[in-house]
Amino acid sequence: MNLHPGPFDRMKGGDKTDELRLNDEKRQRVKVGDHIIFSKRPDFTEGVKVKVTSLKCYKSFEELYEGVKGRYSQCTKEEFINGMREYYSREDEEKFGALEIGIKLLRGHPLDVITQ
Fold first, then answer.
1. How high is the pLDDT of residue 107?
2. Is residue 14 a contact partner of residue 7, using CB atoms and an 8 Å limit?
3. Rounded to two decimals, what is the model's pTM?
4. What CATH number corresponds to the domain at position 46?
5. What is the largest CA-CA distance in the chain?
6. Residue 69 half-sphere exposure toward CB, CA atoms < 13 A
7. What's the domain range around 16?
8. Among 26, 40, 102, 106, who pairs with 53 as Cys (CB 3.0-4.6 Å)?
9. Is a pLDDT exceeding 90 seen at residue 2?
10. Residue 109 — very low, low, confident or very high, per pLDDT cuts 50/70/90?
11. Which helix (H) or strand (E) is 84 found in, with range?
């Protein structure tokens, strides 16, 4: 999966412990215990490996916000939902819902920080 520099750097530093996505077909295949490599946009030459620790499905971005707002208090519900809609359409939100992926950075793992 790909991340913009800010979220990527927080994940690499161990401060980002979840990833919020559309619960589309690709994300529906993710299981607790899976390992995911997140690549840093825009050049994708750096990556981190994480372990999926939890999965929580939500019917909408509004419901997702209610589930995570304690960790995302820097923005209002409207800002949060608009931020999600920068990436995902309302139609896709209604079709798939949203997903909170709990993650743990795999420090000390041979592939914890990948560079090309």
1. 79
2. no
3. 0.90
4. 2.30.130.30
5. 41
6. 14
7. 2-115
8. 102
9. yes
10. low
11. helix 77-85
